[in-house]
Amino acid sequence: MTILIENEADKELDFDYEKLCERLTEATLEAEKCPFEAELNILITNDEDIRLTNKEFRDMDRATDVLSFPMVDYEVPSDFSYVNKNPEAYLNQETGELILGDIMISADKVYSQAKEYGHGRKREFAFLIVHSLLHLLGYDHVGEDEAKIMEEKQENILNSLGITRNEAENE
């Protein structure tokens, strides 16, 4: 598995976010029965930079917590048979890894949302990474049924790693 992480944020994340990203990615791919090793890019940034990207790509002029840029167009979430039919389009030809896509996360939102929801920054960061990974695997939360499926998957993955809402705010 290859995870390239670039941290351009002004705020410091006071936990080992690189190791956490690896654990979260492994757990998510295992939960979704991904048959491939994967490649992923993560950019940790601030509200202003994510706002500009959100405006450019989604025509929404506001900061958001996380943006996902998937590389696979799933017809059905986590249906990897689609990848098998066209491996040259979705697999890194040098490594054979599935190119999942890119995640952009706002450290400012990690801080503010952790406080707002009454849990730690590590838990908030982990939630946003898993949420985004599920988007990269074709899940969405536009409809109520889709949202319920995605929320359940997120909670199951986080709980399997012992990352719960009960985590203290300053952890």
N-to-C CA distance: 27 Å
Radius of gyration: 16 Å
- Main sheet characteristics: 4 strands, mixed
The number of strands is 4
Strand order, sheet with most strands: 1-2-4-3
Q: Helix and strand string, N-terminal first?
A: EHEHEHHEHHH
Structural class label: alpha/beta
Mean pLDDT across the residues is 94
The tally of helices reads: 7
Q: Runs with pLDDT <50, length 5+?
A: none
Shape: globular
Structural commentary:
The chain is α/β, with parallel strands linked by helices. It has seven helices and four strands. Strand 1 (2-7), helix 1 and strand 2 form a beta-alpha-beta unit. Helix 1 (17-31) crosses helix 7 (144-160) and helix 6 crosses helix 7. The radius of gyration is 16 Å and the shape is globular. The two termini are 27 Å apart. The model has no long low-confidence stretch (mean pLDDT 94).
Main features:
single chain; four-stranded mixed beta sheet; alpha/beta; 7 helices; 171 residues
